């Protein structure tokens, strides 16, 4: 098969790789669409010890099953592979299981390839009419779905009565805004530093601001979703959130600074860390995407997998206005 392989910091090559061999409980999926995630970029820069080169990255994927009795079925992939007998899995919280693996981390190659081996329990059927690039968004949008749902559970009033601020207009931040709007918020704004991405957010009908210039006032937001996770955005979240409000921290940039622990304590601000999604979050996200409930999804850009190295370079250089690039095999 052909695959886009990470071979070292800032270096990818499109080349022949051995076809994966599925184990007893697995199928091969012929990948048709796969998104570039921020974690792929982190690995590409050589900053992720969990993803040593050479390695096939990519975990936001969809395609058709190529082996077994369900061959030909269109599916999207849940890349979190967990022992189903784990107590966390039995609770329905696969994402917290100490047994979890994710495709694109050893020992599981990723989906920047023509074929990927996936446990059968990790594929979700999709309608024939659903655009395959939209199906590849299930994984990142499920992250946002989980983040918004977690925030809602910790608020003391309905989301429709809340002011929601999202920090970051990339795929996770923009999707969080779309999910929050779907769940009923009427007062929503996203902060984004990149001019092209601000235009993308506005095109989705969501208000946007330039951080540091016209951001919401101090103590003004009921729910702040930090989809960046940098020192500066953590500080902004603490500044913007009102007393008794909620901060949901979903971004994963390096660093630990920025939190105003005194405010969090004295003003009883709830700080919730969120990671990935539950199987229920994933299933509900797929259903919403298939039904078109999150809009036209015009914020993605599609490119061929064989020029994926240029897509990485363009993202790195700030030359991409789309919130997500989806590579097509």
TrEMBL record:
Signal peptide location: none
Domain spans labelled Alcohol dehydrogenase-like C-terminal: 171-290
One GO MF term: oxidoreductase activity
Keyword Nucleus: no
Keyword Signal: no
Gene3D superfamilies membership: Medium-chain alcohol dehydrogenases, catalytic domain, NAD(P)-binding Rossmann-like Domain
Swiss-Prot/TrEMBL keywords: Oxidoreductase
SUPFAM superfamilies, alphabetized: GroES-like (SSF50129), NAD(P)-binding Rossmann-fold domains (SSF51735)
Domain Alcohol dehydrogenase-like N-terminal: 24-128
Pfam families xrefs: ADH_N (PF08240), ADH_zinc_N (PF00107)
Xref: PANTHER family: L-THREONINE 3-DEHYDROGENASE (PTHR43401)
Name of this chain's protein: Threonine dehydrogenase
Organism: Bosea lupini
